[in-house]
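FW: tagging you since you asked about this chain on Friday. Here's the raw sequence from the shared folder, copied in full. Didn't touch anything.
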Amino acid sequence: MPIKLEITKTKVPVKVWSDEIESSALDQATNLADTMPIHSHMALMPDSHMGYLMPIGGVLPLVNAISVECVGVDIGCGMYAIRTDRTDIDINDLKAIYKLIRERIPVGFDHRKHAKGWEGFDRMPNLPILEQEKPSAFKQLGTLGGGNHFLEFQKGSDGFIWVMLHSGSRNFGFKTANYYADLCKKVRTDFFPMDSSLGHEYFDAMSFCLDFALENREIMMRDVEKSITEVINAKVMEQINIHHNYAAPEVHFGKSVIVHRKGATLATKDTIGIIPGSMGSNSYIVKGLGNPESFQSCSHGAGRRMSRSQAKREITKEMYLESLTSIGLEASEGEVRIDESVFAYKDISKVLENQSDLVEVLVKLTPYKLPAIKG
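HL: got it, structure written out here
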């Protein structure tokens, strides 16, 4: 599918893969295209919507620069998916598994009662904000969080049961991002030069938060596997753990740049990725096609079409529950999360259609029997 829109009135073009994007998000993108040291162009994925400074679903290649707000406050937010060897799970067994998962994995603002060990802290950069947040970070490892973070069992088009979770670097990454965002405001800039002391410092802090986020998801998925094996005899046959909020040095169109993916997923050729839907919609395991025009990126999800406040005004509880029961879920088993309803997000099938030149779908995943666990 070709690019839907290309804005050329700016210093560098903005290439858009969406035919459903709000004007406020386009305004943010054109402002960045006129003010940031961008190489070649900026790309907006088909799930793009307004964020802070930069649209969620944006891909920004900066020359010798790194931007805190163009990574976002949930550094290293990402996805983890596992494929089991089971093709079905009895509903009562699944409820027992969910019960164990809820006992083991704190959600929302909850942290673990006891610190979780991780040797990664031995290689933590000696930076004030990381040292400050380290004591509480031990109890954040292996926690899901709230908002759009979730844990869901799914049935794949390949016939197997999958488990998918969405989470990031928790309050540890949030505090780190805000610390450096405040430093940006003090020096009145939207980015640090990469060859500056602050540029190096933020990059090191961000990189450590990425490792923390990977480990956070890893610990949770091990708890999921433990919960499954205590109830049924199942094995994990495949696993994928990826980020979609980060910046990385890469080469594009012949130049070394710092690519910022804020709500965007790496889609280099043959790279396996995860594109989740909203509550009650499908998710997808995909393979990257390595399209250079998107800086080898794709969407990170469906993308919001309503703010949380608008969703709570316009979507009724009945609409929400019907959206779950209509696909065979026992909606009474989950929390009512109207702001996470399928109606609050773009149509994930359309989002996939709009990036058919960015990824190939490998497995379609459908929510399985019970609603997602959310904070």
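FW: Residues 5-374 form a domain with the tRNA-splicing ligase RtcB fold (CATH 3.90.1860.10).
HL: agreed, and DSSP finds eight helices and 18 strands in the chain.
FW: great, closing this out.
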